Task: structure prediction
Amino acid sequence: MMEYFLLRQLAENPVRPVLPEPGNYPYRLTHQNFEGMPTGSVAYFRYGDEEQMPGILLQPTFMVNDTIRSVMELYDDTIRFKTLALLPDVIDRMTDSSVNYSIPDIKCYECLHEDCVVMPDGTVKRLVVDHRKIPNADVFSIKETTHNRVLVSLGMAESISRRNVYGVEFERVEVR
Result:
C-alpha cells in the first residue's frame, strides 16, 4: 500500500493574481474546468516586499511553479498543463519579478474511505483515503471535496522536498 501526502501551500502572504478574465479560472480544479481555461494567459500581482511566491498557489485555482511542474512530469508524463504568467504591477520590476505558474490537469478519483469525516459544507474534517480506489497514482486530486486536495506519493513528496521549494508542506494522509 502506497503512502500519500497532501500537497499544501505554506506561505504567510502568498501573491494574489489579478486576472483580466477571472471567470476562466474556477477555484475547483476539475478536468472539465481545465478544458475551459485558456492555454496560456497573463495575470498581474501587486508588487511589494511582503508578497511571496510559493511553489503552490491556491487562488484563483490550484497552480504550481516550474520546479513542482518538472517533478510532476517526471512521475506522470500524461499530465497536461496550462500556463499563467504572473507579472508585477511595477514596470521596472517586470523582468526580474515575473514568474510562470502551471495549472495541471490532474486525475481525479472518488477515493474517500468510509471513515473519512466530511462536513455538510463539503469540507473534510478527517481525511482518510481508500487505497483500493487509487490505482497506484503518484499524484491525483480527490473528487468528493469542495477544496482542491492534491495528494502525492511518498516518492514525489521526497523529490519535491529535495528541491527546496519555498512555501510547500506535506501532510501525511491516512490510507486504509
User: Anything to note?
Assistant: The helical segments are 31-36, 66-75, 94-97, 154-162.
